[in-house]
Design goal:
alpha+beta; Glutaredoxin; four-stranded mixed beta sheet; single chain; 123 residues
């Protein structure tokens, strides 16, 4: 079991970040809104349809972006969630407006993706 998990993690780490759909969460230490998002949404996010379509990639707000990612300007606030498809920004959510609003805003961003990118990769 542990070997299977390690293999899956290695496969995920080997994928180039720009060649998929991702939700990049820009955060920083001490960000209370980031912690609130983690408490309210973070645990369930990977198992939701949205989390399957756009896996979460946490990124320090002052860290250099990974190669292959092009966004429309550096975020100023944390958390900022940037939906990226094939390396380009689709849209963003600045701040964390609470769980109910977050899911609605994220759903609107995902609706902007090409149809084939909105399909759950597990199906």
């Amino acid at each position: 079991m542990v070997r299977t998990i390690l293999f899956a993690v290695a496969l995920l780490a080997a994928r180039p970040l720009g060649a998929e759909t991702l939700l990049i969460m820009f955060d920083q230490p001490g960000c209370s809104w980031c912690a609130r998002w983690t408490d309210e949404v973070g645990g369930e996010y990977p198992v939701t349809d949205e989390g399957q379509i756009a896996p979460l990639h946490r990124q320090g707000i002052s860290e250099t972006l990974p190669d292959g990612i092009d966004i429309d300007g550096r975020p100023v606030f944390t958390p900022t969630f940037v939906l990226v498809h094939d390396g380009a920004e689709v849209g963003r959510i600045e701040g964390y407006p609470g769980e109910d609003f977050f899911w609605g805003l994220l759903g609107s961003l995902i609706a902007e993706l090409p149809e084939d990118a909105r399909e759950d990769p597990e199906t």
